[in-house]
Amino acid sequence: MSERAAVIIDHAALAANIEQIRRMTGVAVMAVVKANGYGHGMVNVAKTALGAGATALGVATIDEGIALREADISAPILVMGSTFPAEASEGIAHNLALAVYNPEQARYIANAAANKPVNVHIKIETGMNRLGFSADKIGIEQILQAANLPGLAINGIFSHLACADSDPDFSNEQLNKFIYTINELNNQGIRPPIRHISNSGGAILLGKNFHLDMVRPGIAIYGLAPEGDVRGGESMAGRGFAPVMSISAPIAHIRKIARGEGVGYGRAHIAAADSLIATIPVGYADGFARDMGKNGGHVLINGEISPIVGNVCMDMMMADITNIPNISIGDKAIFCGQSHHRRISMEQLAAPNNRINYEMATSIKRIPHQHPRNP
């Protein structure tokens, strides 16, 4: 395995986060593992989540669902995103539950089902304006027509909160639209057994009336804050969650430079005094922003703060270590995680990279991921 850099996934923390969601909500948990498990490694995350008590998995695409099946995962899997005609039969063949969100899509999924009924979850549009049947009489009539299609077994009904982390009033409006639609369908004899609307924000920030039969936490199971801001790490610790991903790279080279010398492409950093510069072998091809240093980005080395200087290169970046004693080649630079008494959270890493924690975690793709397991 490459020694250039490492992403370490803490599966004990992941399992504990799933258990915390279960304690907080008291309902079934669908662990959302789309986008390669929010950058943490989809298959490994899925297995740990199921072992910790999650009863189902959520993905965005048919291909993600198939990859889980090919990893011998037999738990229920819901494809929450779009399904197109050419891939519907593949989803059905792999026993994936599919989101149904408009009449045309309902028909081609039913046609693909043929002699093998497919489990579907009806998606209701309550405020995201993304996917779903309208929460009104027209939408309800369309759902009733879909329910009569042979080949569709309606196993669930769901919606998605747009502002669970920031606007409880709007979230309540969404919940009310969702419950209205459910009640109207119930009156027509359509009673999907699994009702779910809560993402991470709904599960941990809103009331139990949002939890219904199941919650769908994504970002929270990775110990990251649904709010996405730089205070997120502290807020999640206060809620009983722990971060799952840490990112580090060893120092590859150390060089003394004189006052007035430049660092990196464009000499974007000019040393104001004689300095000691460390080269770290990761760059923007690894998911970091080129202007990370200009925006106040830093790493931790031996527990001390070391600012990134100059433009981040494709495969390397430089850090000023002038004020940190006893540094050697091979010492770890921590981008996200703990170093002695200090920590950089994913939210704090994301900010100088002009991202939120969701984007940052899913951007770290080239660095090898390690999945040590507790004995």
Summarize the structure.
31% of the residues lie in helices and 24% in strands. It is an alpha/beta fold. The chain has two domains: 11-232, Alanine racemase (TIM Barrel), CATH 3.20.20.10; 245-344, Lyase, Ornithine Decarboxylase, Chain A, domain 1.
Overall structural domain count:
2
Compute the average pLDDT. 96
Kindly state the percentage of residues in helix: 25-40%
Under the CATH scheme, the architecture of the largest domain is Alpha-Beta Barrel
Outline the structure in words:
It is built from 12 helices and 21 strands. The chain is elongated, with a radius of gyration of 24 Å. A hairpin with a 5-residue loop joins strand 13 and strand 14 (269-270). With 375 residues, the protein is α/β, with parallel strands linked by helices. Helix 1 packs across helix 3 (42-51), helix 4 packs parallel to helix 5 and helix 5 (85-93) packs across helix 6. The chain has helices spanning 11-25, 34-38, 42-51, 62-70, 85-93, 103-113, 137-147, 168-187, 200-205, 232-238, 346-350, 357-363, and strands at 6-9, 28-32, 56-59, 77-79, 97-100, 118-125, 133-134, 152-158, 194-196, 214-215, 245-250, 253-257, 262-263, 269-270, 275-280, 298-301, 304-309, 317-320, 332-339, 342-344, 369-370. Strands 1, 11, 12, 15, 16, 17, 18, 19, 20 and 21 form a 10-stranded mixed β-sheet that branches. Strands 2, 3, 4, 5, 6, 7, 8, 9 and 10 form a 9-stranded parallel β-sheet that branches. It folds into 2 domains: 11-232, Alpha-Beta Barrel (TIM Barrel); 245-344, Lyase, Ornithine Decarboxylase, Chain A, domain 1 (Beta Barrel), CATH 2.40.37.
